[in-house]
Amino acid sequence: MRTTLNVDDDVFRELMALTRAKTKTEAVRVALTDYVRFKRKESLLALRGRLEITDDWRELRARDVERTGVGK
């Protein structure tokens, strides 16, 4: 998607230095991707203490080995 942005030149210089991007497009793409990843992590971390997860990997592994025969 093509979009026109008005961004301060100093901000772009810093962004390009931080992302080590060769072009403005690459710098924006990296920054947006990182931001989306950060917000997703933030959302998951907000669930901390609200979910109960049991650590039963050994049981799951045994079932998988029993079912497939792989790993015996």
Radius of gyration: 22 Å
The ordered string of helix (H) and strand (E) elements is HHH
What is the number of domains? 1
User: Strand portion, in percent?
Assistant: under 5%
The overall strand count is: 0
How would a crystallographer describe the biggest sheet? none
Structural class: mainly alpha
Mean pLDDT: 91
> Separation of termini?
51 Å
Q: Helical proportion?
A: 55-70%
How many helical stretches? 3
Low-confidence stretches: none
- General shape: elongated
Explain the overall architecture.
The protein is mostly helical and 72 residues long. It has one domain. 64% of the residues lie in helices and 0% in strands. The protein is built from three helices and no strands. The longest helix is centred in the middle third of the chain and has 23 residues, at 24-46. The radius of gyration is 22 Å and the shape is elongated. It starts with 8 loop residues before the first helix and ends with a helix.
